[in-house]
Write a structure and sequence with these properties.
The chain is built from 9 helices and 6 strands; from the N terminus they run H-H-H-H-E-E-E-E-E-E-H-H-H-H-H. It is of the alpha+beta class and about 350 residues long. The protein has a 6-stranded antiparallel β-sheet. The longest helix has about 40 residues, at about 90-130.
């Protein structure tokens, strides 16, 4: 049973990924090839970065469809009837599928943590430069804007954390109290120094006179702390479980809100476990007499329960991001709710 279940699950996943990746590539290939210097290598690079995201998203759907297809086949061949006639309960019949799903959940967590997060971070950085040359390493932040009093500071890239943070491609927009632009200070390098940031070799463009002056080394952005640069835009999906937990800790120390990221952190655990729910929600397709004519209806009910879970999961995460649900509730409530629903349906109909 487990072998049949795994074969069909990953067969369905392969078909879904092939179709969805093809459609996605058709919509993005024009932008990729439209950038000067890009060719087939960049197209395949995009596929290598996008495919892990598609696999992670649709693996639970594949587990659901693999469950329903496996159980329908066994029911149509009277194998489930034979198993129950031998004295096995409904839970014992489903046990091989649940055990296999636990293995899928563990593999999914490791895959998301080690591969999907890195691919998401790299693809996001690549898309920010419109699929052009990307001088950033994985884990660096890009295109961060910070306000210091009346001025605006932008950094093309930020690496490191805390006092060891390094800035690259710094531009300081000096503004008048009325909001007009007074001058621009640009520098390729920046380091933390005292309560400000040392940038070098700096140049200043005066808007009124049009003069460009070399400043050498100068301290700018006084009062701007490292967390305002390094934690300005934390993408939970682009960080591993431990990396996101460290970022949340840094945000808490800086007094910044973390509720939405805490929900993402908890969902990194509850998301992979959704595979364990699918055999339970799709179990309704396994039971009942095939010749009664209700087998198709049972299969539809099983798929409806599974898709209802995915909708509830997305809704709870959205409510958590808005602050309407606590982070733990946003991540775990759909899982626990549909676990009880699946058990109730199974006990009511078969046990």
């Amino acid at each position: 049973m487990a072998r049949l279940f795994l074969t069909r699950t990953f067969g369905i996943l392969f078909g879904l990924v092939l179709v969805l990746q093809t459609l996605d590539l058709l919509s993005e290939s024009g932008r990729i090839l439209g950038t000067a210097g890009n060719g087939d290598a960049e197209v395949w690079r995009y596929v290598s970065l996008r495919a892990p995201q598609i696999i992670s998203t649709f693996l639970p759907f594949s587990v659901l469809l693999g469950t329903v297809l496996t159980l329908i086949t066994m029911n149509a061949n009277s194998e489930v009837v034979a198993l129950k006639a031998s004295g096995l309960s409904a839970h014992q019949v489903l046990a091989p599928l649940v055990i296999a799903s636990v293995g899928i959940a563990l593999v999914t967590f490791a895959f998301n943590d080690r591969i999907v997060s890195r691919a998401t971070a790299e693809l996001s950085a690549w898309q920010k430069v419109n699929y052009g040359a990307m001088p950033l390493d994985r884990g660096d932040r890009a295109n961060v804007w910070v306000r210091a009093d009346n001025n605006l500071i932008s950094a093309d890239r930020i690496s490191g954390r805390g006092e060891a943070a390094r800035l690259g491609g710094i531009t300081v927009y000096e503004r008048n109290p009325d909001g007009g632009l007074r001058g621009l200070i640009t520098a390729p390098n920046g380091l933390r120094q005292g309560d400000g940031w040392k940038v070098w070799p700096a140049k200043r463009f005066d808007v009124a006179s049009g003069a460009l002056t070399s400043l050498g080394t100068v301290v700018v952005a006084r009062g701007v702390t490292p967390d305002q640069f390094t934690l300005a835009n934390v993408d939970g999906d682009a960080l591993s479980f431990t990396g996101l937990r460290a970022a949340i800790s840094d945000l808490e120390e800086a007094g910044r809100p973390t509720k939405s990221l805490e929900g993402v952190l908890w969902h990194k655990l509850s998301g992979p476990l959704s595979s364990v729910l699918m055999p339970l929600l799709g179990a309704v397709a396994a039971f009942g007499i095939a010749r009664s004519g209700a087998l198709f209806v049972r299969a539809v009910i099983g798929m409806a329960l599974g898709f209802a879970y995915f909708m509830a999961d997305k809704f709870a995460l959205a409510m958590g991001n808005l602050g309407a649900y606590p982070p733990f509730l946003a991540a775990w409530a759909p899982f626990l709710l549909f676990l009880l629903i699946g058990e109730a349906v199974l006990l009511r109909t078969e046990e």
